[in-house]
Write a structure and sequence with these properties.
Elements: H1 10-22, H2 25-41, H3 49-137, H4 139-167, H5 171-174, H6 184-193, E1 197-204, H7 212-233, E2 237-244, E3 248-255, H8 264-267, H9 272-281, E4 286-291, E5 297-304, H10 305-313
Parallel strand pairs: 1-2
Antiparallel strand pairs: 2-3, 3-5, 4-5
Amino acid sequence: MGGTVSLSPIGPIVAVYTVASERARGEALAAAAVVGVCAAVVPMGASSVAMALVMRIENVAFVVVAALGGFGARMYHAYMEETRRRLAEAERTREELAARRVADERVRIAREVHDITAHSLSAVTIQAAAAERLIDLNPAAAKEAIADIRSVSKSSLDEIRSLIGVLRGDEAAEHAPAEGTERMGDVVSFLQRAGIEVDFDESDYDKAQVPAFVDMALFSLARESATNAVRHAHAAHICIELASSPLKAVLVFSDDGVGMGSGVREHAEGHGLEGMGERIEALNGAFTIESEPGRGCTIRAEVPLEVVHDDEHR
């Protein structure tokens, strides 16, 4: 009894747990080592040497358990913090992805509306000008031009209604037949009514082996090219070639008009050329424009069908 000292291990054990859970691993190990050594050498108020040894071992074990518990609590808090960070990052990524999808959809809708209205309004303008010239000289021809205006306007209105139906989720509109290269005759007629000589060759084009959305993209490209040619090219002759193989589908649209300078796609007014490129590049295709002032313009689009088919099968 006399001269013996008995210390409670509770305080040091709590201190080890706190340091292990709050401080860096090196500091926690140092604190646990110091307290463990103290617990192993401090005199014990025991009735025998064996009992004192058991108490020392027990205290050291408590220190080790406290250190491990502190490490575990620190790791748990770090894990929860990382989980919260990842959830916040995933939420930000999801919002950014949704914003990009909305932006892409707006671009797609703008492109579709532009394709429909630009072509149909150009056709109406041409026929209206013809009717104005012929109304006194040839009333019958003027009447025919006005009938064409009505037909083109009705067709354009139907297309816009169909597009609005798709946007509203109208199932009938979503399953309605879409326009493809089977209507290339309309493009040729549009150019011919504008007084342009047209050579159209689709002898090497197999529509059956070309996916519908690729066929639609090529038709939209041809229609937009025809609209631009009538409005800006002042061409006398245009060649349109459609071709396909198991590897790719190709559209080439050439005119002998006034041509354009370098960087025409980047610096062109409006959204026609930009929309053409986006439409083809969205299908992993290549879109090129070759033109020089006074030497006409050649627009070429190639869409790889192997990539398209692979995407469909995934």
